[in-house]
Design a protein that fits this description.
The protein is α/β, with parallel strands linked by helices and 241 residues long. It has nine helices and nine strands.
Amino acid sequence: MSWRTIVVSPHFDDAAMSVAGVLARDEGSSVIVTVLGGAAAERESAWDRLCGFGSAEETARERLAEDARACEVLGADQVALDYPDVPARALPLPGLTDFLAANVTPDTRVLVPMGIGNADHEAVRDRALDALRGLGAGEVLAYADLPYASAAREWGTPGAADALADRRPVLALAERHRLRPEPPVRLSEREWALKRRAVLSYASQIAPLACEYGEFVAMPGPLQHELLWTLEEEGAEPDSR
């Protein structure tokens, strides 16, 4: 299978939350590959219990089903790697390396999380970028992690990228890559309706996230905005666009 766009999603809901609008505007085929898509080896986490799950196995099974519904809404293929939802820095993630090596071509656009607000996202980002080195992907972009990035007061304004520029994950990435913010994406009502359907597919996550981020699925609301940075490795010829 050859996909135009590969979205690397640390957890099951990250891609839909962060780039559903971007995918809606993509005319090519796409796949969402969730890295931490397996059951934890130990008991369910405190977050899983807050979401109403009774075991690690139930968490993985139900969240996989939620993700399948969201991917169907977005018209994206679903791939879930069998890594447990534990701190990602403790995992080698060879399956992510193998997946990218088998599927990235010069025509592929790869979206990775920026890592804002979540250490697992940053770890997955770094592993994905290490795996992409030398594969010759057509375009590599980082996306602002939602709902975490929406905590910035400037979120949803033209100054959002500047406001996030001094966050530690962004600074760390800027040491190894040139970062070029893309024009912010503001979803139309039709696009937001589609994204909202996808996000609501992750029913187990809505109430716990709302406790921290308020009415994040409201219209208008923070998820109506999305932000990407194009990444260029230091030492590479700058993109002339």
